[in-house]
Amino acid sequence: MHYQSHAPAPALDTLSSLPLRNDPRARMAAALPGWMQPFLTWVTAKPAPGEEAPERHPASFVASGLAAILGGAALTLAALMLALPWWLAALLVTAGLTTTCSGLGLYQVVIFHHCSHGTVFATRERNRQVGRIVSALLLFTRFEDYQRDHMLHHSANKLLTEEDEFTGFVFGVCGLEPGVPLRTLWRRVIVNLVSPAFHIRFLRRRLKAAMFSGDRAHDWMARAGVAVPLAAAAVTGAWVPVLVAWFLPLTVLLQVATVFRILCEHRFPDVDLIRARGKAFVCASTTGVFPGAMPPDRSPASLGGLTAWGWWWARMLVGAVFARVFVLVGDAPCHDFHHRRPATKKWTQYSHARQQDLDAGSPGFPANYSENWGLIRAVDRNLATLAATPPGVVA
Fold first, then answer.
1. What residues are paired with 372 via a beta bridge?
2. Any residues with CB less than 8 A from the CB of 88 and at least 6 apart, and which?
3. Comparing C-alpha atoms, which of 58, 21, 39 is closest to residue 358?
4. Strand pairing of 288-290 and 371-373?
5. CA–CA distance, 41 with 51 (Å, rounded to integer)
6. Which of 182, 230, 273, 291 is packed most tightly, with the most Cβ within 10 A?
7. Nearest to 155 by CA among 68, 42, 285, 260
8. What is the largest CA-CA distance in the chain?
């Protein structure tokens, strides 16, 4: 990969062919050494100015997701079954559960989703076969049902209507409503995340969609996917390790990640745009969500600058990394690019493809991309648009 030379803030972009950038990622590229840039590109899902896009095959997402699921589950099992100090066991369990949930999210957001667009494997049938396996074993909606609903979601005439899967989740599952004060919306979200009743309702919805779809082959595959690890726990007596290592990330943790991921995907534009239902509406209803924050403009040579940089690195290495691996997995940060170019095979290079489209002015659309930095800020701003939407507009 090649990067621009590190320059003072006023000259962030030395490549005349690219628009001048002054976003947090460009500031990171200007202030920090080149060997850090690949990590920063991964964690922010945003390339440095002038950075070349790496080649990546869809199979690498399949492999990395599977490795995360199996590796995380193995780490959690080992931590629970070996005689380790409690603090080390707790640390390893946390790492294992986060890794497993990250892999599950990759299969949900990347593999399952892009199979519905036919862009993971070479043939339509292979995309369908893999999509069915994922939907059954991970307790998602049957692939064919999801694919039908998801195509409606990509229609400007259906997005943010009662026929839209996103609106159905936000209103039907999360119990959020337009016109409700922002503080009340946040309270409902937080209560949902810690409510056993919410997670049971969410899980019942998933089990019904996966196990009682009316498709016998799919239903029995889903039932076997639950029965096999339960049988293994019964035979070995390792009930707690199996329930924690597999069923906790598959249910509660994945559901928490899903709530945050979906709530940051779409916002509710002005009423006139919602009613117009055109490309401007699509532009205004989606936004990029990038983990990270603007780095300090102070030199670390001073005590104040050192403190500012220390706090920034703490936020990046803890908050931003956690948001990236737990919620904003795969191409989730660039969901707005996906809505503008849903059939593109460049999704494997999502961060660079989105930036290239942004730099080109997003041809074919009346407005360029917008973005939020920070997961919680993105959710807050999206909820604020819901609070500002009059009841009855989204129907």
1. 289
2. 79
3. 21
4. parallel
5. 9
6. 291
7. 285
8. 67
Find out whether 84 and 107 touch, Cβ atoms under 8 Å.
Answer: no
How many whole angstroms separate alpha carbon 163 and alpha carbon 52? Answer: 40
Q: What is the pLDDT of residues 212-270, one digit of tens each?
A: 999 999 999 999 999 999 999 999 999 999 999 999 999 999 999 999 999 999 999 99
**CB half-sphere exposure, 187, CA atoms < 13 A:** 6
Find out whether 258 and 108 touch, Cβ atoms under 8 Å.
Answer: yes
Six-digit token pair at 163?
Answer: 């026929």
Query: Residue type at 209?
Result: A
What are 292-306's pLDDT values in tens digits?
A: 999 999 888 788 889
Q: Closest Cα to residue 391, out of 164, 159, 150, 162?
A: 162
Tokens of 44: 């922010």
Q: Which two tokens stand for residue 302?
A: 């001073």
Cα atoms in the Cβ-side hemisphere of radius 13 Å centred on 135: 28
Contact in structure between 329 and 105 (CB atoms under 8 Å): yes
Contacts of 71 (CB under 8 A, 6+ apart): 99, 103
The whole model's pTM is what? 0.91
| Cα 79 from Cα 73, distance rounded (Å) | 10
Quick: pLDDT tens for 128-172. 999 999 999 999 999 999 999 999 999 999 999 989 999 999 999
Q: How many CB atoms lie within 10 A of CB 298?
A: 13
Contact yes or no for 328/261 (Cβ under 8 A): yes
Query: Are the C-beta atoms of 136 and 218 separated by less than 8 Å?
Result: yes
C-beta of residue 394 within 8 angstroms of C-beta of residue 311: no
Alpha helices in 237-298 (DSSP H): 239-242, 248, 254-263, 271-276, 279-285
